[in-house]
Amino acid sequence: MLLNVRVLAKAKAKLCLNARLTHQVTPMKAIVKGLTAVLFVMMAPPSWGQTLHTPFSELLASHVKPTDDGFSTQVDYSGLALEKVKLDQYLSSLAAIDKDEFDEWSQPKQLAFLINAYNGYTLALILEHYGEIESIRDIGGFFSSPWKQKIAPLLGEIYTLDDIEHTLIRKDDRYNEPRIHFAVNCASVGCPSLRQEAYTEDALESQLDEQTRLFLADQSRNDITDKVLYLSKIFDWYHEDFEKGFQGAHSVQAFIALYANTLSLTPLQVKKLANDAFEVKYTEYNWALNDTK
């Protein structure tokens, strides 16, 4: 994949000039404007056998590290910062996909694209503020949370992270896929792990299944006793997504029961889950940055 270097260089020069003249434009917003302005010269379709998401997989494999307990991952943001150009180029390749092309894709291909976009733009946002923050929630102000900043050029529009998750992925049950909550990563310790590879059309089902099992098996987030089911706040915030009949499950507890083997549940526990008989308590969510340092 090659860029029109000369045109892109001129666009970047203009972007830098505008950023100096307009003090109210943040670095991330400046990047968004620049990306939008030069989309017509950005990445050509993937070639030479390289898929769209290969560069992202390479970045994740290099800079995402498993935690000692094996249930989660951390990001080497310092190392990733050294390859920020590669991340920006990958995001530009996503931005170059138009809606007509996207609409022709299979649902797994669409969903993999959107999950990768969410995770990629989240990483880019963290890099813009890295060294100044201890949590993603430190970005922005009271009226400008990190999830409501328009930072993501996609499909001919500029979206927020909330737009990607709640409109493009979750709205209208287009995908009816509750397991996306174990795939999108909010750059926090309490989040499900950031995978060490990009999501892809062919592997999406197995990737989502593995992410779900890994998250549920982490007893620091989810645990079960004789009477109480301790769950991550994710199941509180998005409980309705687990109540829409995924694999026959119409409640959070029924969804948990789908993974009885992974969780080594007893027949009695499975029966109680099927009847929503457990008291549910939600564990504290850790918003600390998922940094390796």
UniProtKB/TrEMBL annotation:
The domain of life for this entry's organism is Bacteria
Which protein, by its recorded name, is this? Answer: DUF547 domain-containing protein
Q: Where is the DUF547 domain?
A: 103-216
Which InterPro entries would you find in this protein's record?
DUF547
Q: From which organism does this entry originate?
A: Alteromonas profundi
Query: PANTHER family of this UniProt entry?
Result: ELECTRON CARRIER/ PROTEIN DISULFIDE OXIDOREDUCTASE, ELECTRON CARRIER_ PROTEIN DISULFIDE OXIDOREDUCTASE
